[in-house]
Amino acid sequence: MMRFTIENMNCGGCAKGVTATVKAADPSAEIEVQLDRKEITVSGGRTDSDALRGALQAAGWKAETAPA
Questions:
Q1: Parallel/antiparallel/unpaired status of strands 2-6 and 63-65
Q2: pLDDT beneath 50: ranges in the chain
Q3: Which terminal CB of the chain, N or C, has fewer other CB atoms within 10 Å?
């Protein structure tokens, strides 16, 4: 399980965009969004956290690995 803080995820549309970005990078990933905390939890995927963070950042999301 990986957690990311997405600083610029401010609304439901942003959450959908973040989810789509993660799914494009790893279709097997399961994503839980906590919009009020600007965090996502990714589980069940095959991609490591560095690759997912890179994909999110390349798509314009200010993504950082969240503390466990």
A1: antiparallel
A2: none
A3: C
3-state secondary structure of 50: helix
- Per DSSP (E only), the strands in the chain are 2-6, 30-34, 39-43, 63-65
The CATH code of the domain at 2-65 is: 3.30.70.100
Q: Which two tokens stand for residue 7?
A: 């600083």
**Looking at residue 68, what is its pLDDT?**
67
CA–CA dist 7, 30 (Å, integer): 20
Residues 6+ apart with CB under 8 A from 47: 25, 26, 29, 55
